[in-house]
Amino acid sequence: MSLVLEAIRANAAARPNGPALTGAGVHLTWPDLQREIEAAAAWMQTCLRDLPPGAPVAVALDNGPAWVVIDLALVFLNRPSLPLPPFLTAAQRDHALADAGACLLVGPSATTTDPISAVVAGAVVSARVLSGAEKLLHAGTAKITYTSGSTAAPKGVCLSQAQMEAVAASLVETIGAEFAGRHLGVLPLGVLLENVAGLYPTLLAGGEYHARSLSDLGFANPFRPDISRLADAVEAVDASSIILVPELLRGLIGFLAFTGRRLPSLKLVAVGGAKVSPQLIAAARAVGLPAYEGYGLSECASVVAVNTPAADRPGAVGRVLPHLRLETAPDGEVMVSPRPFLGYVGAKPHEGALRTGDLGVVDSDGFLTITGRKSNVIITAFGRNVAPEWVESELLAQPEIAQAAVFGEAAAGLCALIVPSRADLPGTALEAAVAGANARLPDYAKVDRWRLVPPFDPSRGELTGNGRPRRAALHQSHRDFIDQPA
């Protein structure tokens, strides 16, 4: 039995008037949510009647109560789901549908010619039968997640419901159910970090989940967010917790610092997806944002370690969740066990510890610090190994710098591509910002030269879906600067 569905059932009996799910003008109590899940499951069962029993159902909906209900209805049916985050390109989306062998696509009902439609949690949605070939998935697959990857053909990660709910239950245990309160979903629900680490723990802990559309949150253009709308949404729902990627945290810090506004309802702002400097955490707390860094991977169902109000060490990513074990290889690579995921679509079942590709150290108190990606490590002309993420985090801790990417393979010194936080910043301010970052770095990791560049452009493949720089694409765009001799 699903822990999340069991929690909904228990709350429906014990708290019949308690709020469970809100958004898009919809306010569902726990019994309402249970009824919506069962009704959506009955509708989808009809849609799936003549389709292969093990084939996944793809979900391409905006954030909202309907997404939540469809997701949980698929859990109820024991049918694999394939969430399609909005940042996937058309090629990546088509690849995911074909690669996973999806048999049905649930999306918004745009026309009256939709073959099958239903009202789910107040929204009209449609189901379209897909004609792709059936694929053999790993036994027990409940969800297949495709990240943006570095190509048009990212790998599908197969996860069981037990694996995902183990993460959610560990988060409730580690953070404390008292922090459930009102959680506002800020990231796309199609991303595991929001689905498994935001939605599921809130429901397990008996909190209220607010699912607003991404445009309502200020993300009509996800790479040019309207931070004022995000702040308005947090204030409007009196949110007690949110999950952000570092770029959104940086934007929210700047907005609050500039306007003087505060968001006192927030008790927990979890931050993940890329390295966060201690200075950024300190800046967040200075404007009243209780920010705590975490670390995870899709292959671990989103979260591996997290700082909490009770156990916090800025600069580290926190202690490993209690259901996992972590060790480091002789070369520093972080390895996670036991069996965090089932395997990739079309590949052999995963066995043994997961080699994450991340470099890290665990201190005597059990806090994990991630120092960089094994594949990204720069070896300078002096033979020193430098993780570019480390240097970039120091650059990004400077309020004058919005984006940065560091290079220097086989070079005598490091160089950086820098996007200023404002177009009208004088050169002296940026020089001071780079100097400020360098002051916190040893000589071998200092930035010797830098170039101002336009914002990294996802349409040119320069950013991943969660805002990480794609180094190969940036190198190609600025080869003349990066590769110039010392």
Question: Could you please describe the fold and organization of this structure?
Answer:
- There is one protein chain.
- With 486 residues, the protein is an alpha/beta fold.
- The protein folds into two domains: 373 residues, ANL, N-terminal domain (Rossmann fold, 3-Layer(aba) Sandwich); 106 residues, ANL, C-terminal domain (GMP Synthetase, Chain A, domain 3, 2-Layer Sandwich).
- The strands form six sheets. Strands 12-13-14-15-16-21-20-18-17 form a nine-stranded mixed beta sheet, with helices on both faces. A five-stranded mixed beta sheet has the order 4-3-5-7-6, with helices on both faces. Strands 2-1-11-10 form a four-stranded mixed beta sheet, sandwiched between helices.
- β6 and β7 form a beta hairpin.
- α2 crosses α3 and α5 crosses α6.
- The longest helix has 18 residues.
- The protein is globular.
- 49% of the residues are buried.
- The model has no long low-confidence stretch (mean pLDDT 92).
